[in-house]
Amino acid sequence: MQTTFPRLMLEHARQRPTAPALREKVYGIWQTLTWADLAQLVRELAGGMAVAGLKRDDHIVVVGDNRPRLYASMLAAQALGAVPIPLYQDAASAEFVFPIVNADVGFAIVEDQEQVDKLLEIRDKCPLLTRIWYDDPRGLRNYSEPGLTALDALIESGRSHAQANPGFFDAEVAKGAPQDMAAMFFTSGTTGNPKGVVHTHFTLLDRAKAGADFDKLTASEEVLAYLPPAWIGQNIFSYAQWLACGYVVNCPESAATVTIDLKEIGPTYYFAPPRVFEGLLTSVMIRMEDASAIKRKLFHHYMDVARKVGPALMDGKPVSFGDKLSYALGNLLVYGPLRNTLGLSRVRVAYTAGEAIGPDLFTFYRSIGINLKQLYGSTETAVFVCLQPDNEAKADTVGVPIAGVEIKLTDSGEILIKSPGLLKEYYKNPAATAEVLDASGWYHTGDAGFLDAGGHLKIIDRAKDVGRIIGGANDGAMFAPKYVENKLKFFPHVKEAVAFGDKRDRVCAFINIDVEAVGNWAEKRGLPYAGYTDLAQKPEVYELVRECVEKVNADLAADAMLAGSQISRFLILHKELDADDGELTRTRKVRRGFIGERYQVLVDALYEGRAEQYIETQVKFEDGRSGMVSATLKISDAKTHPAMKRAA
Amino acid sequence: MAERKIGDVILDVQNISLRFGGVKALTGISFDVREHEVRAIIGPNGAGKSSMLNCINGVYTPQEGSITLRGQTFRHMNSRQVAESGIARTFQNLALFKGMSVIDNIMTGRNLRMKSNLFQQAIRWGAAEREEIAHREVVEKIIDFLEIQAYRKTPVGRLPYGLQKRVDLGRALAMEPSLLLLDEPMAGMNVEEKQDMSRFILDVNDEYGTTIVLIEHDMGVVMDISDRVVVLDYGKKIGDGTPDQVRSNPDVIDAYLGTSH
User: Fold this and answer.
1) A142 — contact with chain B (CB < 8 Å)?
2) Strand locations in A421-574, DSSP E?
3) What is the mean pLDDT of chain A?
4) Which residue on chain A is closest to B202 by alpha carbon?
5) Residue B101: C-alpha distances to residues A48, B92, B106, B162 (Å)
6) pLDDT tens digits for B79-124?
C-alpha cells in the first residue's frame, strides 16, 4: 500500500466519519470513538506535540495498555513524521533505559502513574527525555516534576494551535512518505541488548493488507486488543490492520476483565498465543468437572463426536449423514453454548502463533467449530509470512507463503525470506542488520524448516540446533531436537524431554515425567510410590512412557524429512530438570549442551547399549542447601520404523 | 508520596468514658482529628478501639464526655444523623449483603442521597430512573477507583475476603463521606492484600480529600500510612502523636510493642 498510517486514518474519517473506530469500556459502558472523533483527537494531539517541540524524525516512546488515546498519540506522532516506539508496559524501569537512550528519545506518552513513576526513576540515566505525558491523572495531581504534563493539557494546547494554524496538520501529513520510518519495535534479546527493529509505513501496511486480503477481512470486523501493544503481533492486528481495513478495535476495561469483555464484544477476528487458548481450555475443563453428572456426560459424549467429526467438517472433507446429524445436535447442545461462554461465537478467523501449539489443543478448538489457524512471522517480517488457508489448518505446519513472500531454504535447512514487509534495519546496529539481511535482500530467520508436499511450511527448530545423524541406518538424516522434544512434551505424562543425536548414529532421549499427571495415573492403578525418583523407575511408568515415545516415532516415520529423528532408546531421569541446577533457562527451556555434559555417563550408557546405569547427582534445594540424589536408571529401547520414503 | 494539606480540627473527642455495667470500656479518652489526615487508633485486643469508634458513630452512648464534630457538640447521635453529617464507616466483620452483586451493594451506600420515593423507585419511572442513572455513575467511578470492574455483577458472597473488604470500603465511599471510619480494614488479609488496601486508603485520602480514622491491629501498616496515632490500652489513652513519637514512647513499648515482639 503506497500510503501512510495518518493518511489512512484521514481517509476513513472522510469516507465514513460516523463509523466506529475504537471502543473503550468506561465506567461499565462501551464508549465509541468514531473515525471523525478520532481524526479530531489526533489533530489536536499532533498540534500539542508540535508546540512541545516534537519534530519530523524525532522518537517518542509510548508505554501502556491498549488505550484509545495512546493509539491516537501514535497516529499523532506519525502525522508529524515522528516515530512512535511502543515499549512493554510490564517491563521493569531499568529495561526502559536501553531503548530510550539507544533511540535518542526525548518524549514519552504513558498510561498512568505506574509508568510515570518508572520513567521518573530512570530519568537521570536518560538525559534527553524531557517531556512525559500521561493519559490517566489518578494519583498524579501532586507531582511537580519538570516536563510532566497530563495528556488533557497537551490536547488543550493542541486545540489552540490547530485554531491558529488550520492547515498545519494536513500539510504535515502530506509531507510523510510511505518509505518513511513508521515505528520501531524493540525485540527482547535473551542475550545482549535488545535490538530496535525499524519498520516503514510501507512494510507494515503492505503486510497488514496482504494478511487482510488472505482472510478477506472487511471493515465490519470486531477485534479485542488485549495483548501488549509493544508486541508487533498486537500492533499489526489492532493498529496496522485496523487502519488498513477500517474495522473496530475494542479496548478492554482492564487485564482482569478480558474474558468478560471478550464475551460482550464477540470478536470476529481473534489472535492469541497458545498459552491463552490453553488457559481457556483449562478453565472450561475445571468448570465441567464441577458440573452435574448429566451435563458432564453430555459434554464428554459430544466432545467425542466433535473430535471425530469436527476437524473433517472444518477442512471441508466429506462426512457421513449420521455423523453430520450428531454433530449438529452437539452444536445445539454443547459447542454453541461453549463457544458463547468462551466469547468466540462470532469468530470468523482466529490465529495462534509464537510457539508450537499441541495438536490436542489445536484440534479442540477446531472441532467445536472455531476456525483456529496458525501463522508464521516475526517482528522483523512484520508478522505475515505464512498463513494457513481456511480448510488446510494443521497442528504441525504454519501455512503457505502469502502474497509477496518468497521462501528459500539453505543447505542447512535455515529458512530465508524475501518479502515487502522485511525490516528496514536494526536501529544503529549495522552489524546485526548485516547478520540477518544479506546483500541480495534475503532475511535469515534463524529457524530451520521445510515445505511439505502441500506447500505448507513446517518449522522444526532453531537452525543452529539442527544437526545431522552420522552413520547407522539413517546416515545423513536431519536431526531436529526441539521438534522431537516438543512432540514428546505434548503428552500430558511427559514434562520435559532432551533429545541427543547430532553427529551420532541414532537418536536417544532423556525424559522427565510430569509427577502430577503420572502420579494421578499411578494412584488410579493402585501403584504405590515414594516421590519422583521412585515413581520414575517403575516398570509400569517406563511402559507408559515407551508408548508415548513409540507414538512419536510413528508420527516421525510418516514425515520424510524427519524419519531419521526417531528415538531408539530412552531413559527417565532420576530428578526433575531444574533452573536452579542450571539445567533449564529461567524461561524453562532445556539447556541441551549443559545437560549432555552433566549426565555424560547416562548419554554414554544410552549409546553403548547398556540396560541400566548408576548415577549420583548433586542437587540444590530451594533453601539453598545441596544434597545428593543417586539411583540406578533403567534404559529402555523403543520401536522405530523405517522411513516411508527418502525424498523431500 | 505527594504532600497533603492537613487542615483544622474537625472532630474533637473530650473525656469520653464508657461503661458496660461494672466494666470500664473507655476511661477519659480525649483526642482530635484534623481535616484530611489519616488518624489511627491502635491498641492490643480489648483495648477499647472498636468501642471508641462506636461512640463516634452513635452506636454507643458514652456516660461521660463530649464529641464535637465541626463545631457541633453532642454526646449521642443516632446512626442516621451520623450518616447525614458525612461520617461513613466500614465494619470489622463485613456486613455486606452476600447474595447481592457488587454494584447493588455499593448502590446501597447511595440510599441516603436518593430523593425519589419507594413507589417511584419500584416502577423506575421518570425522576427515579434519572436519579438511578446518576447514582450508578458515582458507583461505577468507585468501582473503577477500587479496581473491581471484573466483579461488578458477581454476588459478593462468592468473592474472596480481601475483595469483600474492598466492596465494603466502596459502599462507605458511595456516601461521599467527609470522615471515614475504618474498623480493622486489613484484618485477616495476606501481605499483598494489605498492601493493596493501604494504597486504596491513601488514594481515598489523596483523591477525595477524605479524613480517615482507622482502627488497626497491625502496627506495621498503621505506622506506614498514618499521620498521627492514638494508642489505647485497657480503655485508657497511653500515647498520642506521630508514628515516630509513638514508636519511641516507653508506655507504648511496654503495653504493645514490648509484648508483641
Assistant:
1) yes
2) 425-426, 443-451, 457-462, 467-468, 478-479, 494-500, 507-513, 567-572
3) 92
4) A139
5) 43, 20, 9, 16
6) 788 888 889 988 877 789 999 999 999 999 888 777 777 777 777 7
Q: Which residues of B touch A287 (CB under 8 A)?
A: none
Q: With CB atoms and an 8 Å threshold, state whether B150 touches A139.
A: no
Is B93 a domain residue? no
| Torsion of the alpha carbons at A210, A216, A221 and A222, rounded to the nearest 10 | -60
Domain boundary among B176, B199, B231: B176
Please tell me if residue A28 touches chain B, with a CB cutoff of 8 Å. yes
Chain B residues lying within 8 Å of A257, measured CB to CB: 149-150
Specify whether B159 is located in the same domain as B192. Answer: no
A223 has pLDDT over 50: yes
Q: A438-480 pLDDT, tens per residue?
A: 999 999 999 999 998 889 999 988 888 888 899 888 888 889 8
Say whether B143 and A138 touch across the interface (CB within 8 A).
no
Could you tell me if B76 and B193 lie in one domain? yes
Whether B152 sits inside 8 A of A28 (CB atoms) is: yes
| Domain end residue (candidates: B146, B176, B206) | B176
Task: Enumerate residues 102 to 141 of chain A having a beta carbon within 8 A of any beta carbon in chain B.
Answer: 138-139, 141
Cell numbers standing for residue A304: 467425542
- Range of B27's domain? 1-86+177-261
Q: What is the mean pLDDT of residues A417-423?
A: 96
A453 touches chain B (CB under 8 A): no
Instruction: Check A142 against B2: CB less than 8 A apart.
Output: yes
Give pLDDT tens digits for B232-254.
988 899 889 999 898 888 888 87
How would residue A627 be classed by pLDDT, with cut points 50, 70 and 90? confident
Q: Which chain A residues are closer than 8 Å to B207 by Cβ?
A: 138-139, 141
Q: Give the pLDDT confidence score for residue B247 in this predicted structure.
A: 85
Domains with residue ranges and CATH for chain A: 5-271 (3.40.50.980), 397-465 (2.30.38.10), 469-637 (3.30.300.30)
* Distance, CA of A85 to CA of A231 (rounded, Å): 11
Residue B44's nearest CA partner among B244, B235, B188 is: B235
* Per-residue pLDDT tens over the stretch B39-59: 999 888 888 888 898 888 888
Q: Which residue of B has its CA nearest to A258?
A: B150
Q: Using a CB-CB distance cutoff of 8 angstroms, which residues of chain A are in contact with residue B152?
A: 28
- pLDDT score at A189: 62
Residues in A touching B138 (Cβ below 8 Å): none
**Closest residue, chain A, to B5 (C-alpha):** A142
Question: CB contact, 8 Å: B209 with chain A?
Answer: no
Here the ipTM equals 0.77
A254: chain B residues, CB-CB within 8 Å: 147, 149-150
* Number of domains comprising chain B: 2
Do residues B157 and B222 share a domain? no
At B183, which CATH number? 3.40.50.300
Q: Taking residues A616-643, what's their average pLDDT? A: 84
Segment A50-65 shows an average pLDDT of 96
CB–CB of A27 and B203 under 8 A? Answer: no
Q: For chain A, how long is the longest CA-to-CA vector?
A: 86
Of A4-18, A599-613, B69-83, B90-104, where does the model show the most confidence?
Answer: A4-18
Contacts for B223 with CB less than 8 Å, ≥ 6 apart = B229, B243, B246, B247
In this structure, are B63 and B115 located in the same domain? no
| Residue B23, strand partner residues | B20
For chain A, say whether B104 makes contact (Cβ under 8 Å): no
Note whether B147 contacts A254, CB cutoff 8 Å. Answer: yes
User: Shortest CB distance from A256 goes to which of B144, B150, B206?
Assistant: B150
Nearest to B167 by CA among B143, B188, B132: B143
> Are residue B137 and residue B208 in the same domain, yes or no?
no
Question: The C-alpha cell of B252 is what?
Answer: 507504648
- Asked, for residue B94, whether it belongs to a domain, the answer is no
Give residue A253's identity as a one-letter amino acid code: E
Is the CB of B133 inside 8 Å of chain A's CB atoms?
A: no
Is residue B48 located within the same domain as residue B124?
Answer: no
Are residues B261 and B191 part of one domain?
yes
What is the per-residue pLDDT for A278?
Answer: 86
pLDDT at residue B4, rounded to an integer:
57
Decide if B218 is inside a domain: yes
Residues B151 and B200 in one domain: no
DSSP at A464: G
Q: Which residue has the cell 458514652?
A: B62
Query: Is the CB of A143 less than 8 angstroms away from the CB of B2?
Result: yes
pTM here is 0.85
